[in-house]
Specification:
globular, mainly alpha, Four Helix Bundle (Hemerythrin (Met), subunit A), 79% helix
Length: 134
């Protein structure tokens, strides 16, 4: 095992531990951060012309957004579900479509748009009062 592999293994253990100890609120926050990280990595790969890495990072970002959509509860009433969940589902669908377009066309503007939308959703998520984070 070389140094890079050891660092990756250590990072994986740390990530696994953080996920196991996280609340549902923290898990969604981690997903948002992960999506933003993958989008930034895809943009950097796009700038360098590294299409393989670009595709891999966009694919991971799409998977994360899909996981966020799967966590929505459209049947739940109140502020946490129902109409808000339906609007978020539609937004996540749009984000995934734009990510696909970004990959197909090497479109940095599409990546920037999705990152901006994700930051806005994250800003609202981060503003949830501590007593309601569960």
């Amino acid at each position: 095992m070389n140094a890079s592999q050891a660092i990756d293994a250590y990072r994986d253990i740390g990530t696994h531990s953080a996920v196991m100890d996280a609340s549902p609120y923290q898990l969604i926050s981690m997903l948002m951060n992960g999506a933003l990280d993958r989008i930034a990595s895809a943009r950097g790969a796009m700038e360098r012309g590294d299409t393989a890495l670009q595709g891999a990072m966009i694919g991971k970002a799409i998977s994360i957004v899909d996981g966020m959509r799967a966590s929505l509860d459209e049947q739940r009433g109140g502020a946490a579900g129902g109409e808000l969940a339906i609007r978020l589902r539609d937004l996540y669908d749009y984000m995934e479509q734009r990510l696909l377009e970004a990959g197909a066309r090497a479109d940095q503007e599409a990546l920037d748009e999705v990152a901006s939308l994700m930051r806005e959703v994250k800003s609202g998520w981060d503003a949830i009062p501590v007593e309601h984070r569960g």
